[in-house]
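Still learning. Any example?
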Amino acid sequence: MYQTFTNKLTKLFLLVLSVFALVSCEPASEYAEDASESGGFYATDINGTWKETKTGLVIRISGVTSSTSGTGVLTNAGTAFPSAAVGGTPLTVIEHQSGGYWDAYNNTYYTNGTWGQTKVVGLAMNDAKTEFRIGTAVYKKQ
């Protein structure tokens, strides 16, 4: 009989503890925002117009948030692409990873005017949020 009473008391205690833990939790959306701003960076920091320093190509990145991916649209081909490539998407599925790092699909432009997904690349932003790198290519905020 004592064992049954102890089991019931333990279950009641665990139930009260669980309810207390659930009531005291912050909403999940606040956790998502906290995770996306680690190191002073926000997922949205990558959005904007960026110019590659060697070729002069210009990409407008938009749509990146802590919960959605974005795209990079070519607004100036520079010497990297033929002028027909303007308006295409050299970067797709841009997603914030943590701190100043994002991943994206780097797409290849084909001579028939289409783009194809080729590989995932990393975008690493400097602390000042004025430039990012993909490999050795440097993109400056415009």
In short: Residues 12-37 have pLDDT under 50 and may be disordered. Residues 16 and 22 are 10 Å apart (CA to CA). The longest helix spans residues 2-23.
